[in-house]
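Marked as duplicate of an earlier ticket. Keeping the data here for the record.
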Amino acid sequence: MSVNKISATETQLRALLADRILILDGAMGTMIQQYKLTEADYRGERFTQFKAPAGQRELFVKGNNELLTLTQPQVIQEIHEKYLAAGADIIETNTFGATSVAQDDYHMAHLVYEMNVESAKLAKAACKKYSTPDKPRFVAGALGPTPKTASISPDVNDPAARNVTFDQLVSAYLEQTRALVEGGADILMVETIFDTLNCKAALFAIDAFFEEAGYTLPLMISGTVTDASGRILSGQTVTAFWHSVRHAKPLTVGLNCALGATLMRPYADELSKVADTFVCIYPNAGLPNPMSDTGFDETPDVTSSLVKEFALSGFVNIAGGCCGTTPAHINAIYEAIKALPPRSVPAQTPVTKLSGLEPFIIDEDSLFVNVGERTNVTGSKAFARLIINEQYEEALAVARQQVENGAQVIDINMDEGMLDAVKAMTHFLNLIASEPDIARVPIMIDSSKWSVIEAGLKCVQGKAIVNSISMKEGEAEFLRQAKLCRRYGAAVIVMAFDEKGQADTYQRKIEICKRAYDLLVSTGFPPEDIIFDPNIFAIATGIEEHNNYAVDFIEATRWIKQHLPYAKISGGVSNVSFSFRGNDPAREAIHTVFLYHAIQAGMTMGIVNAGMMGVYDDLAPELRERVEDVVLNRRPDATERMIEIAGTLVAGGKKEEATLAWRGTPEAPVAVSKRLEYALVHGITEFIVEDTEQVRLEVMQKGGRPIHVIEGPLMDGMNVVGDLFGQGKMFLPQVVKSARVMKSAVAHLIPFIEAEKAAEQARTGVVAKPKGKVVIATVKGDVHDIGKNIVSVVLQCNNFEVVNMGVMVPAAEILAMAKAENADIIGLSGLITPSLEEMAYIAKEMQRDPHFQGQQTPLLIGGATTSRAHTAVKIAPHYDGPVIYVPDASRSVSVMQNLLTPETRGAYLAEIQADYQKARHQHANKKGTPMLTLAEARANKPTLSFDGNCAPVKPKFIGRRVFKNIDLGLIAQYIDWTPFFQTWDLAGSYPAILTDHVVGDAASKVFAEAQAMLKKIIEGRWLTANGVIALMPANSVNDDDIEVYVD
């Protein structure tokens, strides 16, 4: 976080990178192999007698390439010069393994400083020889990954074990950094990263060096995707890796090694889209091939043509080669791309970018973020007992359950008097690192002790959140801790707490938050990584001073949102209901109402127990009113009234009776469709099989099929869930519970669906030929699959073959599967907003692939965030083949049949294309409205004259007038129905839409239903319409101001 002087080299490099693609050198090891050096050559004269310590096995140093800097410097110098002659702008020092951690394997850790200084000197001398004013050359000091990893256990039986610590890595990298700079390195390059925690240790050391030196050098960071999963070895995706290291503000971020350019392409594409800095790509020369002279299978022409395609696609700012590449490869790359323009660095609005194994973004469009609270020893006695008793498997199960229940971040706290909190935090986080289903989400490291927070930060490879820092010990300590959080690559929760204590009033909350924000931002801390906790305190305590606590938090949240750009707001939600501990129904109601209002005010995230949240609309009206009275402090007797109703929520048999009221009574049961809806909304699995079976029997009695239960009442219930979620009245953990209920219901129906299919085959003696094959997947970055799974069941029941690839599926895997299966159709699903970009990317990749271009394979788009308009405007233009939005599972069958039936396909696609063209036209017209400058608008105003007979008429009254009980039938005559149809995703203007050849039937149906509902509202007097108007004297003054007069 230190603000240090930027070097002239960085300024020079940035100017060059804006002008052209720079060339990095190729493999050092590949070239060394061509010299066929012996053990004696590696030892040279200096190390002829060098031996391992007594009692250890005989030492061989052949293969320790870094030693050659000291024993065969002319070889290293010659390799550098060959790459410079081939066109390289940047060459790397021969220091890939020149750390004390790596050299300890050769018992040569004491030589590390010398190795790095001399390596940098050799490279610097070569660069001076080849540099010209038109083509300056630069030395990148290479910091390799070390053979030991901080995130991965070396013992399969002990997942918490580590053979190197974060502190040991920092010490090793700091020594290497100092030596490289002393030797003359222009750039520092952390490369071939297969464990992000190792990389973060290197970045920590480099930043510490920069602070020590008082200046910075350009920094390059390069990760290594190890296989087709698209992840580095320690498990992170490319985007998650970028989120974890971007705090270092590198000149470049990139990818190298492990893969050739062909396999690296999708990950280079991904990185080029998400990185708001320059990108450096240097792949291997294909895959290993022991029969090749270089050990790899690509010739210079092949590698250069692939890298050229990267440049043409706008992926790179620096290109070079890794394993298997030679000066010939680098020269071919240089010739292929020297005239091509560099990638443009995308401008990005600051948003909070976190990561576990997967990326997590919080921006203005994000829904409320749920932070799981059950892995907190101070908040959960059960979890504390597990940790104290060292029952770590069971403790991990608690963390896993939170993630499965929809927690997007998990809060971990070990502040218990009977625990060694540093040891417990370290052990538990190391265990989590070996559990990908937990580690995929970001970690919130929660402690009141800085030593515990720092211990946690040394274990987490992703971008974590620190909970928390504050100014309680003064500004200097606050800034010291913030600087270290930044150096570790973490976002911070800042408590509204200063030298005088915790802020308990609105004014104190905003004053402290403003002061903390200004201090942090002025010292370089990114505002998007600041998360304020303005303190949630208990309400309804009986103490008058506490009555406004919730209001103060909500209003402080609103103020922070408006006045502290990009900062986020969090809080411990359960605190607000602490007065009612022991009364879970009352606490749940308070949490539900509090969150509803806090989120509307701008609360970003909260530490919550998903089991202690209800659905706002489902609270009994009287209970909701009384809860809102205490939350919003609306009346002086609010606490007494809340206590009164809270007593009825836990009164013995009444509680059980109220709990089951949604099912009705034996004498007056609630309709089973309504029971299913209630169970889905509330995530209740207890009766789901029983109710699903009842609906199935009713459907069968009417001649229906088991699939109709899914397409009818179950889908209706899930649609209600979707509506409530979209309105902010349900939260993600509740939606996850709803999905589980749906899954249970579908699982009950599957055997009946299969039996029906078998019976039909037995009756006809014919095994029905599948109507077509679809590959369906939830796209990369999205773990939600309930809608996709319902579509799969519906299609299978209608005799379509479905290849369900699951969730988080990368584009390359989807397309490869579609080819392998010779799929007729590809279906994409997603719940979250980033999934939309991934869908557009897949459409682009299909357009780029001759297989899909030739087959014209249809691409179906579905999921909660998708829409007809987005599909038409943002996805379909990227692919010449059919791209079709499918609103829900019930439409999937007809869409598939229309696409796969030759007689209907042409007309159907023409209709879709016409509809999408209309949507694109509407979108273009919205964007294309010409805008005038303020001066032009003022000049364009109408000139009015009130001379002659045009004098203004004086109204019959001046002032305010209220109209009571206006006739609803009269108001109904003035309803503009066009927006109504738009909410149903029906394009067109009223009344012409009713006869539209595409959507006319659907529009007429919903219009008739709306008219029937409107009639009931009017005749039943469901609403009261009152109005107020005011007629006041007014006059234009200046250019366009209007003054309104009281009299």
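See parent ticket for discussion. The first strand starts at residue 5 and ends at 6.
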